[in-house]
Structure formats: structure tokens, C-alpha cells
Automatic annotation (TrEMBL), chain A:
Species this chain originates from: Pseudonocardia aurantiaca
Name of the protein in question: DUF1116 domain-containing protein
InterPro entries associated with the record: AllG-like, OXTCase_su_AllG_h-dom
Automatic annotation (TrEMBL), chain B:
Protein name stated in the entry: Acyl-CoA synthetase FdrA
Pfam short name (any one): Ligase_CoA
Domain ATP-citrate synthase/succinyl-CoA ligase C-terminal: 333-480
Gene: fdrA
Stored PANTHER family: PROTEIN FDRA, SUCCINYL-COA LIGASE SUBUNIT ALPHA
Sequence ranges assigned to domain CoA-binding in this UniProt record: 190-282
Length: 425, 551
């Protein structure tokens, strides 16, 4: 293992891994074929470890739905009992996976397989189900189950074949990120451009796979109608990239940010797989009609990997739509620029391969340094979808939230401890 | 009642529409309103919210849907105008001044490329560590903050001196570098008087009077109230003296202070006496024994210090005059008898002419009977004087032509005009000969006089005359010009390069602390970045120690 003479040098190595990563979408398969632990009665979830009883209602709902989908129980009541008594729960992040919202993942749910061609590591994530009644918002009924089956057997199987037709054996993600960040995406609450670019890449291959007509129609209709389809691919690309960066095993760069609806959590490049957790900050949300703060579920999901990856709130300057909700929300471009300038204070460097024209072609931020976060008091800004606190209702708005500062201070203390530095003063 | 409006084929971003919905929801008569694109998902959201109308059901994904639960139809009909009004372009409300802002010194410096000077106005307990970080980066510091220990001040100033940097302050209220105001600062004109001061309002008062008297300021270097204490030993004061002595924009140096400790006074005045430029010292509270001692002119009041400085430096409208070593004599051609007597007396005093017959200084009263026999008085007929001026220009040993210009009823309607023509002509001959000559005058007149004093002054200045505010001032200025011929040539240590650059190039400034101090700099076109300073790690000493250890 390489040794580094300073934290700065280690961080530079971590940042270089992030810049050099080449994530590609190479396959879509049922989760258990790539995560063997999911052969058993294991449910993966978003965020740091949490007991079923402590999960927010929609996450519990999704776990119950997944239990029913897997056929481990036949009715909701027994599924709930199994969840609290028999089934094991573990964080997605411990299995190279990430998931949106509750992030509930079981063996039969199809996942994107993202391969980092540079380092050879892989990451997994369930596919975006679309809006409305979907598992990630804690809904489970016949329609949701049928949709999941369709996603596995039609969409997933079709994509799996289509991906084989790409010359490099998969869909390269960096070109989509680099283009879409110039087209207004932040990849967390604005993913329209990336989803459209992804459709442009996939559609010609899908029609060559030889699916029955009604299947190809349903697949293309679904992809054309889902402006958020790229969300989880972006997350898994971030996961594959940051997992590779974490193998540097040194430095003070954030390699994961996530939340389980109760706690915010981070991992740090020099501190292995340890979770550093803290209480969640209040969401500041723009609501859909009829909803208020009283309806909102606390911030949930592995999607904050998008910010750890350098996107989301950090690239507010690039996303005109998001500019309306950062800062005071009234300042337009100046506020968005100020937000990105502020966030740039806490990163190691910028990615020259992903310049942002609005930012005088400064690159996407790379590598959140916990020392800079603690020193400046600037917490990463996360832009996020907000779901209803009760299962089955779904998304209630779009919000922004700061990462939890105690995660960073406790990680800093651990980093000092690991280097034999005892706190004085 | 439910009221809906469909704007077909009208696209707006959903986040913008959510903001619009929020804005409209506060309107009287509206119970609930939502504006969305008519996508199937959105229509489902509207149905769930009870905002379901046949028009909404028929809307297409490319249609803008406005649907509201309103008190009556009139409210509903007003909605479209409100929506259109919201969607019309409005300038951002935050009104950012264009001042760039950073949250760390690294980024602030990065935005400037390199910083030369920092204005520090943060709580005193944080000043020392922050200024050390500035010195690490070769940045001069202007420290407005107080409550900095004297041991920190000594350490910072010693370190700065070693690096050729200036630490102005702490507790430095005012300053001015190349026309840029630092801290509390009046708007004064540029000029050739450089100030050094351990007193904020003292500096301000002197600068204001300099401005009123027609003078101007090159730089004002604040020291902080303790610089001349025995502990600090005048470190910044001595650096500032030497820097101003070497500064091309500065002709005269003013020191404003309370009386320094005796040991410090000796060193400071010793250096002042050796400067190549005259020094005016106002040591408030110290009894002035003599008006002038060597190179140092002592003033009793702040106003007097300004007056003496302007007399020495000339006004801001004075043109620079370069004299040769052999140019030594003042030729005063006066039209007023008492003005001439005053000139003779002052010149005798300030040049030490009593009993000296070797000099060729001359004060001629052209109103004397000797000259007016058979001719009108020169205040009525300027030719009596103008015909004698050519000889003054043509003598290569003359340094200064000194004049009075008397206005008022009975006097020539345009004495300045008559003089100006001859002066322009004379200076042209002098310049053609590769020389120069100082022409110094005062105007005895008021704004209400038929000739108008400011108009006459302007005519003279445009002809290349230094016009001082009084006869006495004009005489002293003439004496100062001649005396500068004999100025000390004691060699000074070279000015360190960072200080030379600070005074001679446009400084790039980081403003740390009070945002108000950055705004005037920005308006004046300075390169300035505001560092929105906060204590490291929120002021937590344990985390600060860890960060230091992990840096």
C-alpha cells in the first residue's frame, strides 16, 4: 500500500482516483446474482445501520413490500412481524450498493451493475421505478409487484441484452455526466438531461435486441416518460467511483454520505468502513400542493452519495432550475454561484474533465475534505426529493438540507486519534 | 369553488412553478392554488389534493395548468394576471454588489491571484493567528481590530519587519494606500503628502485640512496607538518613514502621534531628520521648542501640521518642478508693499539670511515710489511687473519666481491673465533651455471680488503656477523649494520590495471581517475580495488544535 507524507498528499491521491474513475453500466440483473448475501432473508436499506422498528414508516412499508415481493410472507401483518423478528437488515453501502429513499433492496429486485473500468470494482443499485405508487415510497400492492416483475423480466432483461451491444461492453457514464452538467442537471433533483441522453444511447440498442413489439413499446414508453431514470445510475456511478477512491485508505476525504431517516452518516477515506453519524438537519422544502412540513419524512436515502461525488447541491451553479431553491431562493444566478463558491471551499480540487460553463469552466468539485468542513463550518449542501412521512403517499416536495456537522467533527477526532494525536486545549 | 386555467403548449420548469404556487397561496380569497405542467403524475397529485376539474383532466403534459380553490370567480379570473406577473423577468432581489466573497483565506487569495494587503476587522482574540497566516503569505496587514495583546503586536511587527512587510495597527482606525481608503477614511484628493500616524482621528483631521488647503495625500500609513511605545519601539513608524522617503509619489512626510517614549522619540526623530524629504511632526501634548529643527518641522495643532505640510509640498495642482543644483535663488516680484515686507521677513527667517550678504535672493516691491514714478501702480498696470519677469526666467541660477496677485475694486480686471501669458512664454524658454523654474503665487482676493479669486487661481495654475492659500504660505513654499536643494543625502536602507510594491502598484486586497470596509474599495475599482471570516471550527479550541495537528 502506498504511504503518503501528508494528509494533503493522500487527499490528492483520493481525488485523482475520483477523477480517473470510468464507471460504465454493464448489466441489469436480479440483485442476488451479484450480491450473494441476498440469497438469504436479508434486506438492504439506505443509510447507516438501523433497526426495522426505528425506520420511518415509508421505509418500513417498502421493507414489508419487499418481503411480500420475495414471497417470504403472504400478507402485510405477517410480513411486518417477519421484518421485526426474523429478517436481517444491513446498509446497502456495506454491499457495494446504494438505493434511493429507503433504498430497500432484496434478491429478486433487478439492479444496475456499474463497473469502474479504471479500478475494476463494481457497484449496484435498484432502478428508478418512476413516480406515484412505487416501492421506494413504501407502497406495496399488486400493481407495484407487477411493475417490479416487469422491471426485472422485461425492462431489466432488455437492458441487459442491449448493454451487450455497446462496443465497450457497457454504457459509459462520464460522457453523460459531463454533458448533462452543462445542460442544467445537478443529478440529484434535476436529472432530465442525463435521463434524456441515456435514452438516446439506449433506445437504438434496445430496438435491436429483438424484444416482442409490445415489450419494446412498454420499455421505450417507460424510459421516455421517466425524467429521473438516470438518478440511481448516477448514484451507483458515484458509489463505484468513491469505493475505488476509498481504497487509498488514507486522507480526510468523504467517501460516502447517506441518511436513514433518523441519522446522517459519512465515511472517510482514511478511516475505512467506520460510520460517523449525527442527527439530521431540518429540510427546507418546496412542497407540492396540499403538503406542509408536518407531512415530510425526515431526510432519507443513499442519494447523498451524489453530493459526495461532487454533484447535487455542490453544482447549484450549473443547474438553472435548482438555482431557484438554493440560497434564499430569490437571488437567481448570483445565489447559485455563491452556493457553489461556498461549497468549493470544502473540496480538494475540481474535475477538469467536467467543466461547468456557467462557472467560467471551473470543473465539478472533487473530494469533500472533512478538515475544511470543520474548519469553515460549511456543511455540504444536499438537494433532495422529500417523501411523505407515511407509507404509500409518495413524494411531497423538493428540498435542500445540510449534512450533519457532528459527523464531520467526530470523524476529525477519529482521524486525529488514528494518527496518535491527542486533543489538547 | 374550483377554478382552473389551462395555458396550452406553455412550458415552465416545475421548481419555478412550485415557487409560484407558494407565492400565490398567500393571496386573499385563495384557499389553495397549484400551478403545474399537465403530466399524468402531476394530474394525480392535483386530484389527491382535491384540485380536480374537467379542464385539468383534459390537460396535456405540455400544458401549463393553473387550478385553484377560490372564494369567487373574480378571484379566479385575477389568477392568470398574477401568474403572468410572477413569470415575468425580475432582477434578483439580493442586490449583490459584485463584491466577491470567500469563506477561507486560501480561496480569497486564490480569487485575487495573489493578495498584497488585508484589512483585518475581526475580534481581537483571533487577530494574531490570522495575521500570522497573512504574513505566511507575504500579505501586508491593516489591523482595525483592537484587544490584541502588546506581546502579539511586538511579535507580529518584528516578524513583518523581517519579511519586509507592514503591519498597520492593531487598533488602526484609518489609512490610505494609493487613494484607497482603509477603515474609517475621509474622501480627500490625491497629492504628494504622505502621512504616518499613531492616531486615527488625528490623521483624519490632518488629511481633511490638507484637502481644504488645496493639498493632497499620497498615502496615510496608520501605526496603531502603541507603535511608539517602548515595547514596540516604533517598528512600523520607522518602516513607514523609509518607505515614504523612497516613494516617488510623496514629497513631504507628516508624523501624527501622541508624544512617544523618550528612547523611541530619539530614534524616530533621528530617522526623520535624516530623511531626504521634509518631515512635519505633530506630537500632541509635547511643548514645541522650535518651529524647525534640521529636517523636522514641528506643529502645535493638527490644523497647523496640515498647513505646514501644504506649504512644504505645494498644492495638489502644483506641477512637479525639477531643479538643477546651481538653481538657488528666489526672485520675488510683488505689487503689494506689505506683502513684500512679509515675504522678505519670512524668507530671511526661514533661509537664515540675517547678516548674510552672499545670497542673491530678491524681494522687490514694484509699488515702491522708485518704480511708479510717471507710471501707474502695478496693481493697476501689470506691465510694470511683466516686463521684469523675462529676466528672472532667463537667469539659470534662479530657482523660484514668487508673485503676489492682488484683486478687488480698483485693481486690474485680470491680473492673472496678464501674468499667465508671460509665464507660459517664460517657462517655454526655460524648458527649451533644458531647465525648469518654480513659479509660486498667492491670490489676495475673495470669490466676490470682480476678478473672482478661484477664477484667477485657475488661470495661474493652468499657466504652471503653484498657488498657495496665503502670501505667507507662498513664501514658505518658495523657501521649501530652495531648501530642498540642500536636502540630506544620508543613505537610507533600501525599501523592502513588498513595501515598495504596496505603495507603487494597485494593491489586491482581502477584506477580513467588516464587509462595510470592502464596499468603498470596490466602488473605487480596487481588486478586493471579502473573506467572510468566522472563527476556525466555530471557535472550538479542541477542534482547532486537532485541525492544526492534521494540517
Amino acid at each position: 500500500m502506498a504511504t503518503y507524507s501528508s494528509i494533503d498528499q493522500a487527499n490528492a491521491a483520493v481525488a485523482q482516483r475520483i477523477i480517473d474513475a470510468q464507471p460504465r453500466l454493464v448489466d441489469v440483473v436480479p440483485a442476488k446474482t451479484v450480491i450473494p448475501a441476498l440469497e438469504g432473508r436479508l434486506i438492504l436499506h439506505a443509510g447507516p445501520p438501523i433497526a426495522f422498528e426505528d425506520m420511518p414508516d415509508p421505509v418500513q412499508g417498502a421493507a414489508i413490500g419487499a418481503t411480500l415481493f420475495e414471497g417470504w410472507a403472504q400478507d402485510e401483518e405477517s410480513a411486518r412481524r417477519m421484518c421485526s423478528e426474523e429478517i436481517q437488515f444491513a446498509p446497502n453501502n456495506d454491499f457495494r450498493a446504494v438505493g434511493a429513499m429507503g433504498g430497500i433492496l432484496t434478491g429478486s429486485i433487478p439492479v444496475f451493475v456499474v463497473d469502474n473500468a479504471t479500478d475494476g470494482n463494481r457497484a449496484y443499485t435498484s432502478m428508478h421505478e418512476g413516480e406515484g405508487k412505487v416501492l421506494r415510497f413504501g407502497v406495496y400492492d399488486q400493481a407495484v409487484g407487477d411493475h417490479l416483475v416487469w422491471m426485472r423480466d422485461v425492462l431489466g432483461a432488455g437492458l441487459s441484452e442491449a448493454l451487450k451491444l455497446f462496443p465497450d461492453g457497457g454504457l459509459a457514464v462520464n460522457p453523460i455526466l459531463a454533458q448533462a452538467v452543462t445542460m442544467g442537471d445537478d443529478f440529484h433533483v434535476r436529472i432530465t438531461a442525463a435521463s434524456s441522453l441515456m435514452f438516446r444511447e439506449l433506445a437504438p440498442k434496445l430496438v435491436r435486441v429483438g424484444m416482442p413489439q409490445e415489450q419494446i413499446e412498454s420499455v421505450l414508453d417507460f424510459l421516455a416518460g421517466n425524467v429521473n431514470f438516470f438518478l440511481t445510475l448516477g448514484m451507483a456511478s458515484g458509489k463505484a467511483t468513491l469505493d475505488a477512491a476509498a481504497t487509498v485508505n488514507a486522507g480526510s476525504v468523504v467517501t460516502c454520505m447517506t441518511r436513514n431517516g433518523r441519522e446522517f452518516a459519512i465515511r472517510v477515506s482514511g478511516l475505512g468502513d467506520r460510520w460517523f453519524t449525527g442527527p439530521e438537519e431540518e429540510l427546507d422544502t418546496l412542497y407540492f400542493p396540499g403538503f406542509t412540513d408536518a407531512d415530510a419524512c425526515p431526510d432519507t436515502g443513499d442519494s447523498a452519495i451524489v453530493e459526495a461525488y461532487g454533484f447535487g447541491g455542490l453544482v447549484s451553479v450549473a443547474a438553472p432550475a435548482v438555482q431557484q431553491m438554493v440560497g434564499t431562493g430569490e437571488g437567481g444566478f448570483a445565489e447559485a454561484l455563491a452556493t457553489s463558491e461556498e461549497q468549493a471551499e470544502i473540496v480538494v480540487t475540481h474535475n477538469p474533465n467536467m467543466p461547468i460553463p456557467n462557472w467560467d469552466f471551473k470543473g465539478v468539485p472533487v473530494g469533500i475534505d472533512i478538515r475544511k468542513v470543520v474548519s469553515t463550518g460549511i456543511a455540504p449542501l444536499i438537494t433532495t426529493a422529500v417523501m411523505h412521512k407515511e407509507a404509500g403517499i409518495g413524494m411531497v416536495g423538493i428540498g435542500k438540507v445540510r449534512a450533519s456537522m457532528p459527523c464531520f467533527t467526530s470523524a476529525l477526532e477519529a482521524l486525529a486519534d488514528a494518527r496518535g494525536i491527542t486533543p489538547t486545549a | 369553488m374550483l377554478y382552473s386555467i389551462i395555458k396550452s403548449n406553455t412550458y415552465q420548469d416545475s421548481l419555478r412553478l412550485m415557487q409560484l404556487s407558494n407565492a400565490l397561496n398567500g393571496t386573499a380569497g385563495i384557499n389553495q392554488v397549484s400551478v403545474m405542467m399537465g403530466s399524468p403524475t402531476n394530474k394525480e397529485i392535483l386530484r389527491s389534493a382535491g384540485l380536480d376539474t374537467p379542464e385539468v383532466d383534459g390537460a396535456k403534459p405540455t400544458d401549463l395548468v393553473i387550478v385553484a380553490d377560490v372564494a369567487d370567480a373574480a378571484v379566479g379570473e385575477s389568477l392568470l394576471a398574477k401568474v403572468d406577473d410572477f413569470l415575468r423577468y425580475r432582477a434578483p432581489v439580493s442586490g449583490r454588489s459584485g463584491l466577491r466573497s470567500a469563506r477561507s483565506l486560501e480561496r480569497a487569495v486564490g480569487m485575487l491571484g495573489q493578495a498584497d494587503l488585508a484589512l483585518v476587522s475581526i475580534p481581537g482574540q483571533y487577530v494574531a493567528s490570522e495575521v500570522h497566516r497573512l504574513l505566511d503569505r507575504n500579505i501586508h496587514a491593516f489591523i482595525f481590530s483592537d484587544n490584541v495583546s502588546i506581546s502579539d503586536e511586538v511579535a507580529l511587527k518584528r516578524r513583518a519587519r523581517e519579511s519586509g512587510l507592514l503591519v498597520m495597527g492593531p487598533d488602526c482606525g484609518t489609512g490610505r494606500i494609493r487613494g484607497l481608503p482603509l477603515g474609517f477614511a475621509n474622501v480627500v484628493h490625491d497629492g504628494s503628502i504622505g502621512l504616518v500616524g499613531a492616531s486615527g482621528t488625528g490623521l483624519q483631521e490632518v488629511m481633511v485640512h490638507i484637502d481644504r488647503l488645496g493639498g493632497g495625500v499620497s498615502h496615510a500609513i496608520g501605526l496603531g496607538g502603541r507603535d511608539l511605545s517602548p515595547e514596540v519601539g516604533g517598528i512600523t513608524c520607522l518602516q513607514a518613514f523609509r518607505a515614504l522617503a523612497a516613494d516617488a509619489a510623496t514629497d513631504v512626510v507628516v508624523l501624527v502621534s501622541k508624544p512617544p517614549a523618550a528612547s523611541v522619540r530619539d530614534e524616530v526623530i533621528g530617522v526623520a531628520d535624516e530623511l531626504s524629504k521634509p518631515v512635519v511632526a505633530i506630537l500632541l501634548g509635547e511643548r514645541v521648542e522650535a518651529e524647525v529643527e534640521g529636517n523636522v518641522h514641528y506643529a502645535r495643532t493638527l490644523e497647523e501640521a496640515a498647513r505646514v505640510a501644504v506649504e512644504l509640498a505645494g498644492t495638489r495642482s502644483s506641477r512637479p518642478v525639477a531643479l538643477c543644483p546651481e538653481q538657488r535663488w528666489i526672485k520675488a516680484l510683488y505689487t503689494g508693499g506689505t506683502l513684500a515686507s512679509e515675504a522678505a521677513m519670512l524668507l530671511g527667517d526661514s533661509l537664515g539670511l540675517t547678516g548674510n550678504t552672499e545670497h542673491r535672493h530678491e524681494v522687490i516691491d514694484l509699488g515702491d515710489d522708485v518704480y511708479t514714478r510717471g507710471r501707474p501702480h502695478p496693481m493697476i498696470d501689470p506691465s510694470l511687473r511683466t516686463e521684469r519677469m523675462a529676466a528672472v526666467f532667463d537667469d539659470p541660477e534662479n530657482a523660484v519666481l514668487l508673485l503676489d496677485v492682488v484683486l478687488g475694486h480698483g485693481a486690474d480686471p485680470d491680473p492673472a491673465g496678464a501674468l499667465a501669458a508671460v509665464i507660459v512664454d517664460g517657462l517655454a524658454r526655460v524648458h527649451a533651455d533644458g531647465r525648469d523654474l518654480a513659479v509660486v503665487a498667492s491670490v489676495c482676493g475673495t470669490e466676490e471680488d470682480p476678478q473672482c479669486s478661484s477664477a484667477q487661481t485657475l488661470i495661474l495654475e493652468q499657466a504652471g503656477v503653484a498657488v498657495l492659500p496665503s502670501n505667507a504660505a507662498a513664501v514658505r513654499h518658495a523657501a521649501a523649494i530652495v531648501r530642498r536643494r540642500d536636502a540630506s543625502t544620508v543613505s537610507m536602507p533600501a525599501t523592502p520590495e513588498p513595501i515598495r510594491r504596496l505603495l507603487s502598484e494597485s494593491p489586491r486586497i482581502v477584506n477580513i471581517g467588516l464587509r462595510e470596509f470592502a464596499d468603498p474599495l470596490l466602488r473605487l475599482g480596487a481588486q478586493v475580495v471579502h473573506y467572510d471570516w468566522r472563527p476556525v471550527a466555530g471557535g472550538d479550541p479542541k477542534l482547532q488544535a486537532l485541525l492544526d495537528a492534521l494540517s
